[in-house]
Amino acid sequence: MARRCELSGKAVQAGNNVSHANNRTRRRFLPNLNHVTLISDALGRTVRLRVTPHALRSVDRRGGLDNYLMKADDGVLSLRALRLKRAIVKKRARAAAAT
């Protein structure tokens, strides 16, 4: 499983451990990924995703998972999140056509 946030796209970064003697060894900075269950209002179901706390704050700020996905760039979303976004777009289009 890739160490990448499914919503924001945050991934592993590389850097150096620097000792007192200025010796440098390579290291990795891993993102803080958590398994969370989010609710999609349009689909009426829950979705389990692996996201960072930064992405969770952004979801809350934008008013929920559906609004976040509508404004998110497709390039940073995971394949699962893209499928979810397409399903939400279809559902909203059907609801708009029905009214």
Could you walk me through the main structural features you see in this protein, from its secondary elements to its overall organization?
The protein is an alpha+beta fold. The protein has one domain (13-98): Ribosomal protein L28/L24 (Ribosomal Protein L24e, Chain: T), CATH 2.30.170. Helix content is 37%, strand content 26%. The protein is built from three helices and four strands. The protein has helices at 53-62, 65-71, 79-98, and strands at residues 13-18, 24-29, 34-40, 45-51. The protein has a two-stranded antiparallel ribbon with strand order 1-2. A two-stranded antiparallel ribbon has the order 3-4. Strand 1 and strand 2 (24-29) form a beta hairpin. The radius of gyration is 18 Å and the shape is elongated. The model has no long low-confidence stretch (mean pLDDT 96).
Range of strand content: 25-35%
Q: Which sequence of SSEs, written as H and E, runs from N to C?
A: EEEEHHH
As a whole number of angstroms, the C-alpha radius of gyration is 18 Å
Count of individual domains: 1
For the largest beta sheet, what order do the strands appear in spatially? 1-2
| Distance between the first and last residues' Cα | 42 Å
Helix content: 25-40%
- Low-pLDDT regions: none
Please count the beta strands (DSSP E, at least 2 residues each).
4
Class, according to the CATH hierarchy? Answer: Mainly Beta
- The secondary-structure class comes to alpha+beta
Number of helices: 3
**Largest sheet at a glance?**
2 strands, antiparallel
CATH topology label: Ribosomal Protein L24e, Chain: T
Which overall shape is indicated by the principal axes computed on the Cα atoms?
A: elongated
Tell me which CATH architecture applies here.
Answer: Roll
Q: Superfamily at the CATH H level? A: Ribosomal protein L28/L24
**On the 0-100 scale, what is the average pLDDT?**
96
